[in-house]
């Protein structure tokens, strides 16, 4: 979906159409969850501090997120996708892979399926979707971003390796900013540079990921589309209106996060062994602290006590704390897992895949 959260808000409030819109928190303390394309022209991006976004675009309109609405529309779109294939791998509320090799409608062309899907999504939701069509997940993802917004792009097998060659490695799905910077320091700036490296070289510098990078540089990605992926972790976090320093104030904010995480785990019958605390300071420096156990945590109380112990271990804090988060992971079957995004009410931000 194109700028999903922001597009929903513009759809539902005609006053926002054509204006730069950011979905997210308050100006001083919040973070941009999504930005309309009008806002992106000013350099506003998701995960950007709200204050910085406002400096880049003084006319930016902030809207509080409505996760229940976004989730409902996501389910509506998922139902459309399910008419074509049972092999649907969601990445988030607004994005998914489909394997249409043997599709339910017997349509021979994946491009025609993408055209139908986009038309039906627009008709039923009044929102636009972009689609990428190719012979593997890596290239389909690249293609889906190539003609946004409201675009369709196809990378056939004969063009896969060539398409990758010209791209900067920072645009590769699966290569984040830190890894791209490491590659740049090694003289790897484009897909062509990446392809010129040996498998041994990439494994030496990037470990197990080296084999994946070796393949995608050649347009090769054998990962299957996995429907109903096992959840790997459940987490929740909150940004405070003002920086906090004392243990009592911080533990008062941590407890409702623990309750949210435990509630979703209990509802989904998930039992985790690893608790991770996330702390972001006033200067945006971030740390995490984890503790793992031999057996899954048996109760809400055990999760809360572990989270509080991790919090106590980082005190006294060198600076005020602007954000706390807690995550439970280490579930059974996590080797084949994805991550659960946990949309929460206003004041609480979700962790995303």
Task: Jot down its keywords.
4 domains, 353 residues, disordered C terminus, 38% helix, MutS, DNA mismatch repair protein, domain I
- Work out the radius of gyration: 22 Å
Strand/helix succession: HEEHHEHEEHEHEHHHHHEEHEEHEEE
| Outline | globular
Which percent range fits the helix content? 25-40%
How much β-strand is present in the residues?
A: 15-25%
List the uncertain runs. 334-353
Walk across the major sheet and give the strand order: 11-10-12-9-14
N→C terminal distance: 16 Å
Number of E-state strands: 14
> What's the architecture of the largest domain in CATH terms?
2-Layer Sandwich
Q: What do we call the CATH homologous superfamily of the largest domain?
A: DNA polymerase, Y-family, little finger domain
CATH class value of the largest domain:
Alpha Beta
By DSSP (H or I, 4+ residues per run), the number of helices equals 13
Domain UmuC: 1-176
Site (Substrate discrimination): 5
Subunit structure: Monomer.
Catalytic activity: DNA(n) + a 2'-deoxyribonucleoside 5'-triphosphate = DNA(n+1) + diphosphate
Topology readout:
Blueprint: H1 4-12, E1 21-24, E2 32-35, H2 37-40, H3 50-56, E3 61-63, H4 67-82, E4 88-92, E5 95-98, H5 110-125, E6 131-134, H6 137-146, E7 152-155, H7 160-165, H8 177-185, H9 191-195, H10 199-206, H11 209-216, E8 230-231, E9 233-244, H12 247-267, E10 274-281, E11 286-292, H13 300-313, E12 321-329, E13 337-338, E14 349-350
Parallel strand pairs: 1-3, 6-7, 8-13
Antiparallel strand pairs: 1-2, 4-5, 9-12, 9-14, 10-11, 10-12
Active site: 95
GO molecular function: damaged DNA binding; DNA-directed DNA polymerase activity; magnesium ion binding
Domain UmuC: 1-176
